[in-house]
Amino acid sequence: IKQILLNLLLNAVQATPRGKRVLVRAESGEGPGTAGSAVLLVEDEGPGVAPHLRERVFEPFFTTKDDGTGLGLAISQRIARAHGGSLRVEEAGGGGARFVLTLPSHPGGGQTEGRDGEDPGR
User: Fold this and answer.
1) DSSP letter at 17?
2) Chain centroid to CA 24: how far?
3) What is the side-by-side order of every strand in the sheet holding 37-44?
4) pTM (2 decimals)?
5) Are 37 and 47 in contact (CB under 8 A)?
6) What pairs with residue 71 in β-bridges?
7) Rg (alpha carbons) of the chain, rounded to whole number
8) Chain centre distance of CA 9
9) Would you say 103 and 88 are in contact if contact means Cβ atoms under 8 Å apart?
10) Contact 86/21 with Cβ under 8 angstroms?
């Protein structure tokens, strides 16, 4: 999860002009498809992602940067899915990009485990 946040923050900082903001926000999912989830938003005040490119940004080796590898977002999306979550991009309020990471609050169907793998309620 740390790798996802690092990739999203790096992209946001690189896309945001000097003097503009990068916003990171965590919230509890309450809408359709996010109830019972943790939601992390990384939003920038850069130029945003054109609508026709939003699906492609998660493709391996696709990049709009001159010096980019096109792997950061692809890897981030795979990590999110491996944890039972999702990663999507949308337009931010001011025209920048907003990346939304949604993860289940309790992996494994809502059951929590202790450090040794035992049910903490025992």
Assistant:
1) P
2) 10
3) 22-28, 37-44, 97-104, 86-91
4) 0.81
5) no
6) none
7) 16
8) 10
9) no
10) no
Model confidence at 54, pLDDT cuts 50, 70, 90, reads: very high
Half-sphere exposure of 1 (CA within 13 A, CB side): 12
Helix locations, 24-112, DSSP H:
72-82
Would you state the pLDDT for residue 29?
82
Residue 27 structure tokens: 């919230």
Region of 7 (left: φ > 0; alpha: ψ -120 to 50; beta: rest) is alpha
Which tokens in the block code for residue 61?
């080796």
Structure tokens at 1: 């999860």
pLDDT surpassing 60 at residue 121: no
Q: CA 53, 59, 60 angle in degrees (round to 5)?
A: 135
Average pLDDT value for the chain: 86
Q: Say whether pLDDT at 72 is over 70.
A: yes
Alpha helix ranges (H) inside the chain: 2-15, 72-82
